[in-house]
Amino acid sequence: MAASPTSSGALNRGDRLFGVKLTAPAGVILAVLLLIPTVLTILYSLHDVPANGRSLGPFVGLENYTIVLGSSVFWRSAWVTFVFSVGFVIFSTLFGLGMAILLNQRFVGRGLARALLIIPWATPWLVIGILWKWFADGSVGGLNAVLLMLGATTDYYDFMADPNSALVLTIIAAVWRQASFAGILLLAGLQTLPEDLNEAASLDGAGVFQRFRNITLPWLKPALVTVTVLNIIYAFLQFDVIFAMTQGGPGDATQVLSILIYRQLFGVTQIGLGSALAVILGFIALAGGLLTVKLLYRAERQSA
Prior knowledge:
MetI-like fold; mainly alpha; disordered N terminus
């Protein structure tokens, strides 16, 4: 019997073609916004690009990468990036998880509290940096006012001029924004957790910690993996908050790799070196995300 024109094979081919047509505009946009700049950055990193950026300049191969990796400035910025990222990822994830668990409980005003959770996440990174810069200002900042009120200090202190406190405050500012995002995602995961599981475990005598460890955490594993990977990527690529608060200072105390890239590209117009730095940072962020996914799922398989 001959296959009809409306057989499953024909329909599948038509569905695939229809799907391609639907996704083609998004694919073109992604290619323009992501693929082309990525390719250009890699090309720039392999050339001695003139300051005006109108041509690639002489091909130098991996020379720019050799210069970057042999620079003490790069390794200092890499260390600052590592410290910032560790603090950012750990506290964003933990505070987000804590807020999600709290807001999943029944209490008066829970709806308002959940609505307020969205505010930090909906605020642009640059605005977060400006707000926290004002808050930590050494002359009129609210942080000093609170410390004076509590008796923790007797005079106003310029936290942003201290290398140690400046880095800590940039981490706190970024965590304040990102923890709300993590809380929203984890709260969504908790909303899908069947109440029967906790009730049955409670009837069997399981305590709060036991239910959290054996029921809540395993249920949230996919959401936690997503949150952790996103936090790692945000940490390594963070720019706006740090630039608004310190511009990498005082000195190089908060000069993460993204700030160093900005200074190379727009400060001293070393386009080849700046592009090499951008490629290295991109690989670091990608490797960190992939490694985290692998480690988390390996731990899940071993515990299964």
